[in-house]
Amino acid sequence: xxxxxxxxxxxxxxxxGFGCMRLPVKEDGSIDEDRAKKQVRYAIDQxxxxxxxxxxxxxxxxxxxxxxxxxxxxxxxxxxATKLPSWLINTREDMExxxxxxxxxxxxxxxxxxxxxxxxxxxxxxxxxxxIQDFFDTxxxxxxxKYAGFSFHGDGKxxxxxxxxxxxxxxxxxxxxxxxxxxxxxxxxxYAASKGLAVMIMEPLRGGNLTNPVPPVIKExxxxxxxxxxxxxxxxxxxxxxxxxxxxxxxxxxxxHIEENIRIANEAYPNSLTETELQVISKVETKFHELLKVNCxxxxxxxxxxxxxxxxxxxxIYNNKYLNGNADEAKFYYxxxxxxxxxxxxxxxxxxxxxxxxxxxxCPQHIEIPGILESVEEELGGSDLEERIAIAREMxxxx
Length: 399
Fold this sequence. Notes:
Elements: E1 3-5, E2 12-14, E3 16-19, H1 33-45, E4 50-52, H2 62-69, E5 79-84, H3 92-105, E6 111-119, H4 121-130, H5 132-141, E7 145-152, H6 156-163, E8 170-174, H7 185-194, E9 198-202, H8 216-224, H9 231-240, E10 247-250, H10 255-265, H11 275-291, H12 311-324, H13 327-338, H14 358-362, H15 369-380, H16 385-396
Parallel strand pairs: 3-4, 3-10, 4-5, 5-6, 6-7, 7-8, 8-9, 9-10
Antiparallel strand pairs: 1-2
């Protein structure tokens, strides 16, 4: 495992961090604790020493799970990162309440890396008025947290002033080869690093959009390279090629993915990609931007929808229609996966949207969700939807 130094703290952190937002789950949606614990401990045994969670992950169950996973001596082997749910803060006292609750949920006396979660410009301004700087100072002084940082989900114009708004130890940004100019972007990465902050990266694979499925035209570009790598390896190596990056968080929930990511993290040095390799990635970036219809990473911050729409899945199937160029397949999967035919659950179609716009306040990508859901329904719904649903229910009915 390769490590990089946090210039503010002196910590040597594994360049691969374990993200606990997309842990393996059981059929009922709860965390598959036995499997997830084995995965987390295996990664730690291979050298991963940075584990990231947050208050809302897995409907509030990620932090308690992590406490169990880090028993038996594993807590001492890692730095825990978790986050203050900034959007739920209405008073200075709320900050104390959530931090103390998280210490209890994590069964620890100190959180190593504590972030103000989901910062955008307006929310940061509100938190400042409520005393966020004093809160961090106090929590660091009394030992409840060791280092203070923030995760950023806003417009790039607000990033620098948030960096300058407190004596941060680190920050967390979304970054991958499609997001050089999105949110903080490359400019924000370099600015934070210039201020001595460690920079943690989220969404390195853009919620899987860079790897699954791989459109044929993208596959052709990858295969044109004399060096053969998986799409995931290309994506990770591109990020780790930047010396300003400290840790890349991966929401690993498949054993094969963990193995691959650890292998790459043993080899991915900064400034190691050749100009030819960078040109190949640039071609892929250009083609992806041409193909993607919705800038969704599948983070699920928009969920649950009051009307029952499965927003991320609607967008995933909609994007796949354009990535694969197969409209009939996309329409069939729209019926199968959103009708409840497989799960025997309630329907979750785009047509159920009631234009309440609650999702607009929550989306880190600032997607015009209600309007795009109309397009999803127009292209994937249609007069034959009931017929497709009937076929799906027949295919998946229990014998």
